Amino acid sequence: MTSREPLTMSTESPQQSPALEIEGVTKTYGELRAVDDVSLVVDGGIFGLLGANGAGKSTLYRAILDLVDLDAGEIRVHGFHVRREGVDARGRIGYLPEELRLYDRLTGWELLDLVSGLAARGTEDQRTEWLEYFDLAPQRDTLVAEYSLGMRKKIGLCAALMGRPPLVLLDEPLNGLDTLSMQKLRLRLEEMAREGSTIILSSHVMAFVERICDRMAILRQGKLVAWGSAEEVRLQASMPEVPFEDVFLQLAVGA
To answer: Is the pLDDT of residue 230 over 60?
Structure first.
């Protein structure tokens, strides 16, 4: 199987469009081919989009959000073409970027209120519930500029997950979180997946990835090099009995 053949991770019914369809996507920056002819279909569950730094993960996320101009390929979110029907596509996505930029002059509550209005999802009760879940309720009226790194990551997660969007993209969501917050995030993502959301996440914490992800794909220099469940990826690497971190390093960087 080559990367042009669609990699399908789907539980869709015949009447429904998959949460995410990527067909032959290529993106170059000068001489660098950041994403190289990638095709995959993801629908339902928790999916790991993995790779070393510079493998193309963040570029692929930005392409899904129509934040970059592709050299080739198409992307659809629940059947909506991200370029031609961007409003409908992006309205179904919750997104946490790796490089999190927030409105520092807003309070935590005001930030969630702004996101709720822009994304047309998330009630006042839901904003309160998310702040309480991630232990931010006491700081709801504190300026985001005064938040610690962990608090900024948690308010970013609240903004991405609020309203339970049907497709969630999380780029390195664990950075800055303590162990308890990681556990809370895992439990909430598993709950959202059971209720029908499709979660796509990237992380370098392989123990977390192996535990939470139903399926995964590994990128290396912009190309898909392995995909499937953790056990299937192990077999593709001919490393069935070793820790998954070693499997990832072998596939992602050749180490």
So the answer is: yes
